[in-house]
Design brief:
single chain, about 350 residues, alpha/beta, Alpha-Beta Plaits, Oxidized Rhodanese, domain 1, four-stranded parallel sheet, about 30% helix, globular
Length: about 350
């Protein structure tokens, strides 16, 4: 079936970025989610795209039968109209929103996708019940709970997120995808079913579903940070909350991070120097996500390796020819995965 061109972006990334540069107004970045039954998904998706495009909304949005998970960029002057439009939908009315800790150009187009899950845990519906979720703790309550000697803090994010920032003393699983996360944490918490578990993630959507999964699996005292690290960061900045989170909060948009504290807890993947600057390899055949310091950024032309840098300097015709040859190295990433592959060093 042919796509309706008015319901999908058809402009090139280059053109979209140029248009973004020419904008004379400010944008607000925010995220929101809700676990709620949504029917007629394709029609709902198309309606949102029509309404939001008219207001020049950019972002990445997942809708499924279990709810909605959205990260968006809204022109500041359209915020009131956007909020009013959201409230016309029963499933979105008065939905709580998390505004970015640090502003910046987060998105350059609108993508709305119909998904099986709004968080890709790969769970069957009999493995959790969203009527039973972990207790929500405010940032201050979370800090207090962390100070209790037997509490266990669990980072519900992937390794490349916790690499640049995490709560002190947190268990941070070395996993690349959401699908790997729950089995690994379940393994790490074996025998701790009676313990006080404190979960956190970027904005809350992952903890909400994960908490239900762990309750279903016999854990008695599951808690989650309300609004995630984003909300926590606002409380640190605006309400004199002492930060137990150190470093940056990784975010899934063009900014790639929001600084919560001045601590830099990670290292450049190329020279080993202190850095927490995530970057996508400049080689279009690679685009691996990795950490690169300013010095190496200049040395490797924002690429992850000499091989990628040299390939990236070729003409487009030369690149196309080499890509067809399986014996040629055009990228230093691991074979294609659904997650963020590690940089091979």
């Amino acid at each position: 079936m042919l796509k309706n061109p008015s319901l999908y972006n058809e402009k090139s990334k280059k053109d979209l970025l140029e248009e973004l540069k020419l904008e004379s107004f400010k944008r607000l970045t925010c995220s929101f989610y809700r676990y709620v039954s949504i029917v007629n998904l394709n029609s709902f998706r198309d309606l949102l795209y029509e309404e939001w495009s008219a207001l020049k909304i950019f972002g990445r949005v997942y809708v499924s039968n279990e709810g909605i998970n959205a990260q968006i960029s809204c022109p500041q002057h359209n915020w009131k109209s956007y909020n009013e439009k959201l409230n016309t939908h029963r499933v979105l009315k008065d939905i709580p929103k998390n505004f970015a800790v640090e502003e910046g150009n987060s998105f350059h187009k609108l993508v709305i996708k119909v998904k099986d899950e709004i968080v890709a845990y790969g769970l069957n519906t009999n493995e959790y019940d969203m009527n039973f979720v972990g207790k929500h703790l405010s940032p201050r309550e979370f800090n207090s709970a962390m100070n209790r000697p037997k509490s266990i803090i669990v980072d519900m994010r992937n390794y490349y997120e916790s690499e640049v920032g995490k709560f002190k003393g947190a268990i941070a699983p070395s996993v690349e995808t959401s699908r790997e996360l729950l089995p690994e944490i379940k393994r790490l918490l074996k025998g701790k079913e009676e313990s006080e578990i404190l979960m956190y993630c970027t904005g809350g959507v992952r903890c909400e579903k994960a908490s239900s999964f762990f309750i279903h699996n016999g854990f008695k005292n599951i808690n989650q940070l309300t609004g995630g690290i984003i909300n926590y960061g606002h409380q640190v900045r605006n309400n004199n909350l002492e930060s137990q989170f150190i470093g940056k909060n990784f975010v899934f948009d063009a900014r790639l991070g929001e600084r919560i504290t001045d601590d830099v807890i990670s290292n450049c993947h190329q020279c080993g120097g202190t850095s927490d600057n995530h970057i996508d390899c400049n080689n279009d055949a690679c685009h691996i996500l990795f950490i690169q310091c300013y010095k190496c950024s200049k040395k490797y032309d924002q690429c992850c390796s000499i091989e990628c840098m040299e390939f990236n300097r070729l003409s487009e015709d030369e690149k196309r020819t080499l890509r067809k040859d399986p014996d040629q190295v055009v990228s230093m990433t691991r074979n294609s995965t659904s997650g963020k592959p590690r940089l091979i060093t």
